[in-house]
Amino acid sequence: MRAVGLGLGALLSLGGCSTLPQENDVPQLQLAPSLLPSLSYELVPYAPAPLPPADLWERLRRGYALPELHHPRITTELNWFARHPDYLERTFTRAEPYLHFAVTEAERRGIPLELALLPVVESAFDPFAFSPARASGLWQFMPATGRLYGLQQDWWHDERRDVLKATEAAYTFLEDMHGLFEGDWLLALAAYNSGSGNVRKAQRRNQRRGKPLDFFSLDLPRETEAYVPKLLAIARLVRDPEAYELALHPLPNAPQFAVVETGGQLDLARAADLAGVDMDTLYRLNPALNRWSTHPDGPHRLLLPRDKAEAFRTGLTALDPSERVAWVRHIIREGESLSVIAARYRSSVEALRRANQLRGNVIRAGDALLVPQASATEERYALSADQRERRTAPAVGRGTRFEITVRPGDSLWTLARAYGTSTANLARWNGMRERDVLREGRSLVVYQEGPAPTALEALPPKRNAVSRRVAYRVRQGDSLARIAKRYRVTVADIVGWNLLDPKAYLQPGQPLTLFVAVTAIN
């Protein structure tokens, strides 16, 4: 209709006079019958595009694509999560900075959005989480698998903990497994947890016995048999929290961080000041960073809260290049080596080589070295690898030490009352927080004056350079020296922690307790 109107207006203007043509002067337009159908049209009701949901949970639900199954293993996990709403609340609170990106990336790839919830199962959305098997980060990549999927791991950073790269790598890994197992997402998830080889072996066993080859029919490692049901249970709880008397606090359907280019290496204390954020926030958005600065070779970017990004860009533009990283001129003394100098300045041999264009380790007394150095005190870089390694193991209490086993319904509060102590003490003795949920069957350490109800092994003494407690089971061929080397501790540490006879042989399956730094899991 608009085109017709414009055409008539143009015809009227061509006359060049102020009077309209008379009726007899206007040519009569005769339409051939064959042209009439071309003027007909059909009214189509206007359907506006659906608005994106304001709540991230609703967006997540709209993208569900995994089968909604009913199985006793799923029910078991559902019941546990439903009984521990505090655990879910803490986990989803930790997820807030990361979940929108995980959902967006899954949506971009066209994969089930339930997969964005996998870090709930893997790490409880703790970016610094690691397992006894040496997996690290939100998505719990093993070192070799991480390298296979392009996640760099060195002194400066561990990209298995990088929010962007690890999420992309995890989805690529899952897509690869999805293709390998002919479009079965449950088998792909099982392979993500235990490896494609284990899943293939289980399928071959079932094939020989004439049994089905689906996930719930396979005989897989116990952890894997619970792994997939946990994700399906979490997805169901998110789909319909009210059915389980749960309340999910709303999450905005908007990015929670901005990716800001730094243009080169940058001291994190300087970055925090420019952005106006605390160091904990900076490290938790950039958990791959092991040290006090970004990687000299990149990626030259930081994740920052969205509302702080512009101030950071403005401040970075005005920053003098000499203030990005502090440098010290060190005169080499007799007997010093690169490793000694690196340790003194909290740097690395690799960084010293790069800064001074050295090919090897040979240096001469009297020469000068340029050394990159942190601008603030060690304590300010609270979540750097150095500071994480300085955290202590669970504290030792007064009196006799013994262990108790958590039963259904137990909490730190009820146990503290039963044993005449405080929840703070129980948490401190067991390396926990006071609000942590207790899993049935877990052992807890308790100290009391007088004789212990049971005689059990002693708690390890305080130790520096520790950030996580690891329950390890001795494998075939293990020795104290081999385990110590693998986790970067000493044989004396392991002996002291577990009250071992250093001359006795380890037995396969024997439980050991280790206190391991996050960076020892590289």
Written description of the protein model:
With 522 residues, the protein is mostly helical. It has five domains: 56-244, Lysozyme; 257-323, no CATH class; 326-374, Membrane-bound Lytic Murein Transglycosylase D, Chain A, CATH 3.10.350.10; 400-448, LysM domain (Membrane-bound Lytic Murein Transglycosylase D, Chain A), CATH 3.10.350; 468-521, Membrane-bound Lytic Murein Transglycosylase D, Chain A (Roll). Helices cover 39% and strands 9% of the residues. The protein has helices at residues 2-13, 56-62, 72-83, 85-109, 118-122, 143-148, 163-180, 185-194, 196-208, 222-239, 268-275, 279-285, 309-318, 338-344, 349-356, 385-389, 412-418, 423-429, 480-487, 491-498; strands spanning 257-261, 301-305, 326-331, 368-373, 400-405, 443-448, 468-473, 511-516. The strands form four sheets. The chain has a two-stranded antiparallel sheet. A two-stranded antiparallel ribbon has the order 3-4. A two-stranded antiparallel ribbon has the order 5-6. Helix 7 (163-180) crosses helix 8 (185-194), helix 8 packs across helix 10 (222-239) and helix 14 (338-344) packs across helix 15. The longest helix has 25 residues, at 85-109.
